[in-house]
Amino acid sequence: VQLVESGGGLVQPGGSLRLSCAASGFTFSSSAMSWARQAPGKGLEWVSGIYSDGSAHYTDSVKGRFTISRDNAKNTVYLQMNSLKPEDTAVYYCHLLPGGSWGQGTQVTVSS
Questions:
Q1: Coil, helix or strand at residue 73
Q2: The Cα angle at residue 105 between residues 102 and 92, in degrees rounded to 5
Q3: DSSP assignment, residue 74?
Q4: Which residues contact 55 (CB under 8 A, 6 or more apart)?
Q5: Which CA distances in Å does 5 have to 34, 42, 112?
Q6: Has residue 73 got a pLDDT over 90?
Q7: pLDDT at 94 over 90
Q8: End-to-end CA distance of the chain, in Å?
Q9: Which site among 15, 17, 41, 88 is 20 to 30 Å from 63 CA-CA?
Q10: Residue 80's beta-bridge partner residues?
Q11: Residue 100 has pLDDT above 90, yes or no
């Protein structure tokens, strides 16, 4: 199993980023996936999850700003992040559910 995140970077408050997680080594289309993040000096926080039927769930702090989606043809899960805030600064990880592999993470920094 391999999960490779990309798309992080530095963005100003109010800006947008789209994270991607390319998956391989398992049957992606039938798997639930999630995004989690770890801010500096804090613990890991679940952000969003998407199931094989496309149903999506979000932590309250990102509802209305983040959108998770998947492309089963490309074995990729995305996290579109809009209206970014400084408190969204963290390393974002892709995760295979339940209890599966993690990616290496991609840094998102929201700062002016």
A1: coil
A2: 100
A3: T
A4: none
A5: 12, 21, 24
A6: yes
A7: yes
A8: 37
A9: 41
A10: 18, 67
A11: no
The full 3-state SS of 37-63, as one line of letters, equals: EECCCCCEEEEEEECCCCCEEECHHHC
Backbone φ and ψ of 30, nearest 5°: -105, 10
Exposure on the CB side of residue 52, measured as CA atoms within 13 A: 8
pLDDT digits (tens, 9 = 90+) for 2-61: 999 999 999 999 999 999 999 999 999 999 999 999 999 999 999 999 999 999 999 999
Residue 101 CA to residue 57 CA, distance in Å, equals 20
Contact 52, 31 (CB under 8 A): yes
Look at residue 30 in the predicted model and tell me its pLDDT: 95
Q: How far is CA 18 from the centre of its chain?
A: 9
Q: What is the pLDDT of residue 62?
A: 98
109 in Cβ contact with 40 (< 8 Å): no
Q: Which residues of 12-43 are buried (b: 16+ CB within 10 A; e: fewer)?
A: eeeeebebbbbbeeeebeebbbbbbbeeeeee
